[in-house]
Design brief:
Layout lengths: L5 E6 L2 E6 L10 H16 L5 E6 L4 E3 L29 E5 L2 E3 L1 H7 L3 E5 L3 E3 L21 H10 L3 E2 H7 L4 E3 L4 H13 L3 H13 L5 H16 L2 H12 L9
Parallel strand pairs: 2-3, 3-5, 4-6, 5-7, 6-8, 7-10
Antiparallel strand pairs: 1-2, 8-9
Length: about 250
């Protein structure tokens, strides 16, 4: 593999972003942080890239959080390039977790829209054990039971991939060797859907979280209005009637 801390490659319409410091358990230093942010900007700007997969090199860790050897200087909050905080993308992102996701690495994983985990993967919010704070743990509200969120956040104890699946933090758990195969299959399922509909659905789900039904409906209707009026909406119905795969134009 290249010595770059972050790798970016295209497989058809799928962008694969790989954390590439396996000898350091893929901890995030300044170079990796900058590389991840650049990758998300590249993905968002490329109309040919429909879905992204975030994964990591090696077989031990997805990401063990921040590189504490650099922690004495530089960024405080916001150092780890977590989606929906430091940067946002409108298109779907799948996390493919190949090993331990710890601290900020755990938040990088769960900030992705979908998550596929290898059986060897694990998840832990370890900040309290090094005198720091799991400030993104509020994302767990409404996603997993409160007492589970408290235990994870306060003790730093890890949970297995299977337990994460049972709690709803992970969509699929697969044998280690089939991790990328499953992630790519899920990515192609997303690519089969209309891109405007997928992006609007992603935005709507996040924007309506915690809203009352009336307010949520207003947000949803506003988000989906361009979808209803799009060329792809016409194409989708035409393809259904003609019993053929639709040809999406993203407009």
């Amino acid at each position: 593999m290249s010595g770059d801390p972050v790798l970016y490659e295209m497989q058809g319409p799928v962008a694969i972003v790989t954390l590439n410091r396996p000898e350091k358990r893929n901890v995030v230093n300044t170079a990796m942080r900058d590389g991840v942010l650049a990758a998300w900007k590249r993905f968002e700007a490329d109309p040919a890239a429909r879905v992204a997969i975030l994964t990591a090199a090696g077989d031990k860790a997805f990401c063990a959080g921040r590189d504490l050897s650099e922690a004495a200087s530089g960024h405080g909050h916001g150092f780890i390039p977590i989606l929906r905080d430091e940067v946002s993308v409108s298109k779907p992102v799948i996390a493919a977790i190949n090993g331990a996701a710890l601290g900020g690495g755990c938040f990088m994983a769960i900030s992705c829209d979908l998550c596929v985990a290898a059986e060897r993967a694990s998840f832990a919010l370890t900040e309290a054990r090094v005198g720091r704070a799991p400030i993104y743990a509020f994302w767990l509200n409404g996603v997993i039971p409160q007492k589970v969120a408290l235990e994870m956040s306060m003790t730093g104890n890890p949970i297995t991939a299977r337990r994460a699946y049972e709690l709803g933090l992970v969509n699929h758990v697969v044998p280690d060797a089939f991790l990328m195969e499953k992630a790519l299959s899920l990515a192609m399922d997303l690519c089969a859907a209309a891109p405007l509909a997928v992006s609007a659905t992603k935005a709507m789900i996040y924007e309506t979280a915690g809203l009352k039904p009336e307010a949520a409906m207003a947000v949803s209707l506003e988000r989906f209005k361009p979808v209803f009026e799009s060329d792809d909406a016409v194409e989708g119905m035409r393809a259904f009637r003609e019993k053929r795969p639709p040809v999406w134009k993203g407009k």
